[in-house]
Structures are given as structure tokens and as C-alpha cells.
Specification:
This protein is an alpha/beta fold. It folds into two domains: 109 residues, NAD(P)-binding Rossmann-like Domain (Rossmann fold), CATH 3.40.50.720; 179 residues, NAD(P)-binding Rossmann-like Domain (Rossmann fold, 3-Layer(aba) Sandwich), CATH 3.40.50. Helices cover 31% and strands 18% of the residues. The strands form two sheets. Strands 8-7-6-9-10-11-12 form a seven-stranded parallel beta sheet, sandwiched between helices. The chain has a five-stranded parallel beta sheet with strand order 2-1-3-4-5, covered by helices on one side. Strand 1, helix 1 and strand 2 form a beta-alpha-beta unit. Helix 1 packs across helix 9 and helix 3 packs across helix 5. The longest helix is centred in the first third of the chain and has 19 residues. The protein is elongated and about 65 Å long. 37% of the residues are buried. The protein binds NADPH dihydro-nicotinamide-adenine-dinucleotide phosphate. The site of NADPH dihydro-nicotinamide-adenine-dinucleotide phosphate has 29 residues, from helix 5 and strand 7. NADPH dihydro-nicotinamide-adenine-dinucleotide phosphate binds next to helix 5 and strand 7.
Length: 312
């Protein structure tokens, strides 16, 4: 029985994945690329990275799906992905490290008021703004999972005043965690910087909307590192125009690549990144996938599994 690799890849990327996976998989494993000729009935395991909808149709002996991406929202939105086949998420320390570094860069950029100084530079204005220390800067994190926890811990270690919001309650040294709508309201009203690290689900879609922005203190900034579908774009433009929000750093968008005529590109109070916060590291992801396949071959189900009912 074989392994199928399917993703939104060009020929060169497929070739690099093949090379990295071949270096890690057990010698008797047979790897097929979606672009190869193969018998669908021979596929037992699918390694997927944002696969085009319908990619897994006809794989009647499929028993395991290993995601090579941290987010599985695109995969779960494909109704043809068989509901009975377990999906394993990618947990990669390198990806977590990359996200942590990106979130730290965003918070430092906002904390040290670089957007305001950039505006001053444009008009050659020499003006010192009041200095604030990290312990006086309140950061709220939506999502306290693999990535949210690492980001929260890194910020707390620099003395930022961090709170995080999740579905279940968590206890975590040095970080107040909140749940539910009342917990969200309490977190929002004290967040000078709000970072979104939620998965995109039916419950979290459009969560960054006018109602949420209103609950943030005037002059707050937002950082969206999760998914474009979390953000109501019109409400963000309104909140920036009214001055209620000072700045937004966006790594993800409803449409990617961000269309060339999109207003976010030229907005002075938006920093737009081309979905680079934390990219899958092919080498480490291939090793993690291969280790999970070894576990599966040894009759142990790898973890963590996606909870289809929750959507993440
Ligand atoms: P996890 O699944 O580990 O964590 C998700 C967190 O969100 C959990 O704390 C969960 O709560 C919480 N959550 C989910 N639904 C709700 C809800 N309705 N209300 C409150 N809290 C909720 O995900 P990761 O940390 O690994 O990743 C988060 C997201 O980051 C990914 O889904 C992906 O979209 C994005 N991402 C972006 C990248 C980029 O380059 N920009 C790269 C990688 C990921 P609980 O703890 O109770 O389960």
C-alpha cells in the first residue's frame, strides 16, 4: 500500500517534497505524487498541503491523512474528504518558532510605536513620543493552542502583560487565560495589541469585526496571523478611518495573493505581509510525517488528531 502526496505545488516543489520525504520514510514505503500515474486503490495514507478540492476522491482504501500545513480549514471545507479517515495535524517546533518570532516582531514594531514614527518621518517631524515599557503594554491573544501558547510565553518572558482566550480553560504560569463571551469581552477591553491565532472555523469566521473592534481601547492595534476569513475587511477600514484602531498588521487575507488593487496595499496604517508568518519547513515536516507514518504502521494512531466536530 502506498502514500500519496498532494498539495498546491508546482513541479519543482513536488520534486523537493519527494526528495525530503524519500530521505525520511522507511525504505519499503512507496511514495506517489498526485502528478504521478498510480492506482487509487493502492493509496492508504495521504500527505496533504492545501490540496485542491476533490483530491482525495476515489481513494477507497485511505486510512490516514497527515496534514503538512498547521491550518486545516481548507481541507475541512472540502466535503469530498472522507469523514471516517483520521486527520493528523502538523506540530512542528520550527513552525512554532517561526510564528513566535513573527509575533514578537509585530508586537515590538507596535509597542515601540514604529508606525507613528514612520508617519513622522514622512513629514520630517522630529518628535519624541512617551516611552512605555513592556510591562505597561497589554497584549491579548485570541487562540491559546500550539502557537498561541508559544507566543504568549515569549511575550510574557519579555514582561508584556499578556492575556489569552481559548475555548476550554487552561492554566499557564504567568498568563491569565479566559474563555467564553464574557472572557472575550474582558480580554478585549484591556488589549492595547490584539493578536489573532485562532483556527478558522464556523464559530471564529469574521470574529475580527466592528463589534470586536469597538470593545478594544481607543488606539489599539491588531495583528492577524491566522486566516483572512477571520477579518471583516470593511470594518477594519472603518475602525482605522475613525481612529479607533491605530494600526493593523495582516499576514493573511480573504483572497491570496492580495489583489493588486486592494486598498490594504497602500493604506498608511496597514502593514501587509504575503502570508509568511510561519511557513512549513519541508525538512522537519517530512521527518515528522515519516515518524507519524512509522507510528501508524506500528498500529498506534499519531497525534494530535483534528476534531472534525470542532473544526480544528
Ligand atoms: P491549535 O488548534 O493548536 O489552537 C487553536 C486555539 O484556538 C486553541 O486554544 C483553541 O481553544 C482556540 N479556539 C478554537 N476555537 C475557538 C473558539 N470558538 N473560541 C475560543 N477559542 C477557540 O492551533 P495552532 O495554534 O496550531 O494554529 C492556529 C492557527 O494559526 C491555525 O489554525 C492557522 O489558521 C494559523 N496559522 C497561520 C500561519 C501563518 O503563516 N500565518 C502558519 C500556521 C498556522 P482550546 O485550547 O480550548 O482548544
Amino acid at each position: 500500500m502506498s502514500i500519496l502526496l498532494v498539495g498546491e505545488f508546482g513541479a519543482e516543489e513536488y520534486a523537493r517534497w519527494r526528495e525530503n520525504l524519500a530521505a525520511c520514510l522507511a525504505g519499503d514505503e512507496i511514495l506517489r505524487l498526485a502528478t504521478d500515474k498510480y492506482d487509487p486503490a493502492s493509496i492508504e495514507i495521504a500527505l496533504v498541503a492545501n490540496p485542491p478540492a476533490g483530491s482525495l476522491v476515489g481513494l477507497r482504501n485511505l486510512r490516514l491523512i497527515q496534514s503538512l500545513w498547521a491550518g486545516v480549514d481548507r481541507l475541512l471545507s472540502d466535503a469530498t474528504v472522507p469523514a471516517h479517515v483520521p486527520i493528523v495535524r502538523l506540530i512542528d517546533p520550527n513552525l512554532t518558532q517561526a510564528m513566535t518570532e513573527c509575533a514578537l516582531a509585530c508586537v515590538m514594531f507596535l509597542h515601540r510605536q514604529f508606525p507613528a514614527y514612520a508617519e513622522q518621518q514622512a513629514t520630517r517631524e522630529w518628535k519624541k513620543r512617551p516611552q512605555t515599557l513592556a510591562r505597561q503594554r497589554r497584549v491579548g491573544i485570541l487562540g491559546f493552542g500550539q502557537l498561541g501558547q508559544a507566543v504568549a510565553a515569549a511575550l510574557a518572558s519579555l514582561n508584556f502583560d499578556v492575556e489569552a482566550w481559548s475555548a476550554r480553560s487552561h492554566s499557564f504560569e504567568g498568563i491569565r487565560t479566559r474563555t467564553g463571551q464574557s472572557g472575550l469581552a474582558a480580554l478585549l477591553e484591556r488589549s492595547d495589541i490584539l493578536i489573532n491565532l485562532l483556527p478558522l472555523t464556523a464559530e471564529t469566521a469574521d470574529i475580527l469585526n466592528a463589534n470586536l473592534f469597538r470593545q478594544l481601547p481607543r488606539g489599539a492595534s491588531i495583528v492577524n496571523l491566522a486566516r483572512g476569513g477571520h477579518l471583516d475587511e470593511g470594518s477594519l477600514l472603518d475602525a482605522l478611518a475613525s481612529g479607533h484602531l491605530a494600526h493593523a498588521i495582516l499576514d493573511v487575507f480573504r483572497e491570496e495573493p492580495l489583489p493588486r488593487d486592494h486598498p490594504f496595499w497602500s493604506h498608511p496604517r496597514i502593514t501587509a505581509l504575503p502570508h509568511v508568518a510561519a511557513e512549513t519547513d519541508m525538512k522537519t515536516a517530512a521527518k515528522i510525517a515519516a515518524d507519524n507514518i512509522r507510528e501508524f504502521r506500528g498500529s498506534r494512531m499519531p497525534a494530535p488528531l483534528v476534531d472534525r466536530a470542532k473544526g480544528y
